[in-house]
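Entry for the shared binder. Reason: the reviewer on the internal report wants the predicted structure included alongside the sequence.
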Amino acid sequence: MNRREARKQAFMLIFQYNFQPEETETLMNDFFDRNKAGGQRDYIEGAVRGVMEKADEIDALIEKYAGSVGVDRISSVSLAVLRLGTYEMLYMEDIPAAVSVNEAIGLAKEYDGDEAAPFINGVLGKIKDEIR
């Protein structure tokens, strides 16, 4: 599994976290039982657990730059993409911020439609500017 596929899997687990936070560990264990993550297991586990642990901090930062749209009004797909991208930029120093933004835009286009991409780009771009 390459990093792009691992990011997609982490995004899906984070998306499921929105609906079943108490089941995330079970879902993650089931994922690893069914899939060969190879060298990407640490990335997936770190990203998913990190988003769970830092959700309040990450959501506050997203809300700061989402304009009049609060996190409760962002689609679940876009919120999962934003959480993952923000977590990567804040806590995964081995991933360039520009890569996190570009990959998030790709996930948004694939799973939430082309119209979500400019919103994701705008919010993550502002977060990237703040933390750099």
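Summary line for the report: The chain has one domain: 3-131.
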